[in-house]
Design goal:
2 domains, six-stranded mixed β-sheet, Aldehyde Dehydrogenase, Chain A, domain 2, 25 strands, 23% strand, 479 residues, 15 helices, Aldehyde Dehydrogenase, Chain A, domain 1
Length: 479
């Protein structure tokens, strides 16, 4: 058991109230963190406001040097972070290493903007004048993140905010705060001045609410659920605070009759069962052209039956536990409702029997459902677990219509070798990300953004940097 403090103004700060952090494979606590008070959150915000002035006045080269050094330190502690992620989230160790490497790449990518944050010199309307449009730091940024990728998404918020010259107050999810706190242990050695990046821990009702209500916050970047994102947008509107919201997803996976079925099956499995299905861009509903549906389902079922659920630290494990009891119960409730409505579980369909090594923990069977209909709740509500509902369709237009029949619009997948279909899907699918003949995984220089209720704004690339900047227009007259 390790007792962590919050990281505020370069110091470790404690609180009388503590929250336990549980290992989802054993349900045993392995750490405690402070439950911050409103006063401590306000102190973190005020600290960030004070520190931002001097940080923002540094050159991009000076700020980039810190990010590069921080990335080097994460590399040196790669094994430590990977094992901690497996214990904190329950993801298989090989996936945890992937998260460490992918997350750390944001430090180095955004460090490259040390000389690339550029403005404009425009042609003036009047003689003897200059017209400049200058980028400047937005000020104090607030980052609020979900539990499924607690290290990678923490860096996803930290790196662009800091290279832009902002300071940051980060709130990790109360179930998975440890890796973000461990990341801050490296901050001083990376050369980060006190107060520039702060981590406060606790619940959304206290910590999150205080952060988004504060007039000190100049920009809020959120990754999490739709209800929480809507709440943040509503509260932030009182101070006209800019918000970037990356919320839920219900990604359709469309399989056409002209594709490589084996490749489609491989990708359907990877994009659904990675991180126990706890990914916002995961394959949440699979639509297969009727001509290849039987073949696809047979191959899919054979593969899923052989998947190994077990200890995340075991190299042979493919699926770990759900992150907590609430999430496990939600998956079970969603599947039970679909079965009651006529769906069939051809693989799995229940919580793993609580015996032996599964006597404790939040384990769910890898599941394939057939006999689903478009009007079922499971085709519209996020499952966020290791469950694939499969539904046949008759033609391309019907597949696109089913895919767009959702209030989410984060990601979609399409398997076809017909370029005309690909181009029509690019035009017609109502999503922020489209993966054609490949599985999930954003590029850090792309733009991770959602349509509809999947969010506004986004992360990554040059567009994900923009909301940490403000533009100042300057008119200069000279003699």
């Amino acid at each position: 058991m390790q007792d962590y403090g919050m990281f505020i103004n370069g110091q470790w700060v404690h609180s009388p109230d503590r929250l336990e952090v549980l290992d989802p494979a054993t349900e045993q606590p392995f750490a405690t963190v402070p439950a911050a008070t409103q006063e401590q959150v306000q102190h973190a915000l005020q600290t960030a406001k004070t520190a931002q002035k001097s940080w923002g006045r540094l050159t991009g080269v000076e700020r980039g040097r810190v990010l590069r050094k921080w990335a080097d330190l994460v590399d040196q502690n790669r094994d430590h972070f990977a094992r901690l992620l497996s214990r904190e989230v329950g993801k298989p160790l090989k996936e945890a290493y992937g998260e460490v490497d992918f997350g750390n790449s944001w430090f180095r990518y955004y460090a490259e903007f040390d000389r690339r944050i550029e403005g404009d010199i425009c042609a003036p309307d009047k003689p003897n004048e200059h017209l400049w449009i200058i980028p400047q730091p937005a000020g104090v940024a607030v980052g609020i993140i979900a539990w499924n990728f607690p290290l990678a998404v923490a860096i996803r918020k930290i790196a662009p905010a800091l290279i832009a010259g902002c300071s940051l107050v980060l709130k990790p999810h109360e179930d998975t705060p440890v890796t973000a706190l461990e990341l801050m242990k490296l901050a001083a050695d990376a050369g980060l001045p006190p107060g520039v990046c702060n981590v406060v821990t606790g619940t959304g009702e206290t910590v999150g609410e205080t952060l988004v209500r504060s007039p000190i916050a100049d920009v809020i970047s959120f990754t999490g659920s739709v209800p929480t994102g809507k709440r943040i947008a509503s509260v932030a509107a009182e101070n006209v605070t800019f918000v970037s919201l990356e919320m839920g997803g219900k990604a359709p996976f469309i399989v056409m009759d002209d594709c490589d079925v084996d490749a489609a099956v491989d990708t359907a499995i990877f994009s659904r069962f990675l991180n126990c299905g706890q990914i916002c861009i995961a394959n949440e509903r699979t639509y297969v052209h009727r001509k290849v549906a039987d073949q696809f389902i047979e191959k899919l079922v054979d593969r899923v039956k052989s998947m190994r659920v077990g200890n995340p630290l075991d190299d042979a494990t493919q699926i770990g536990p759900k992150v907590n009891r609430v999430e496990l119960d939600k998956v079970q409730r969603t599947v039970s409702e679909a079965l009651a409505q006529g769906a069939q579980a051809v693989v799995g369909g229940d919580i793993v029997e609580r015996t032996g090594s599964f006597a404790k923990g939040y384990w769910y069977q890898p599941t394939v459902l057939t006999g689903v209909r478009q009007d079922m709740a499971i085709m519209h509500q996020e499952i966020f677990g290791p469950v694939i509902p499969v539904m046949p369709f008759d033609d391309f237009e019907e597949g696109i219509a089913y895919a767009n029949d959702s209030h989410y619009g984060l990601a979609a997948y399409l398997f076809t070798n017909d370029m005309n279909r690909i181009m029509r899907a690019v035009r017609d699918l109502e999503v922020g990300e489209l993966y054609v003949n490949r599985g999930p995984g954003e590029s850090i220089h792309g733009y991770h953004t959602g349509w509809k209720q999947s969010g506004i704004g986004g992360d990554d690339g040059k567009y994900g940097l923009e909301h940490y900047l403000r533009r100042k227009t300057v008119y200069i007259r000279y003699q």
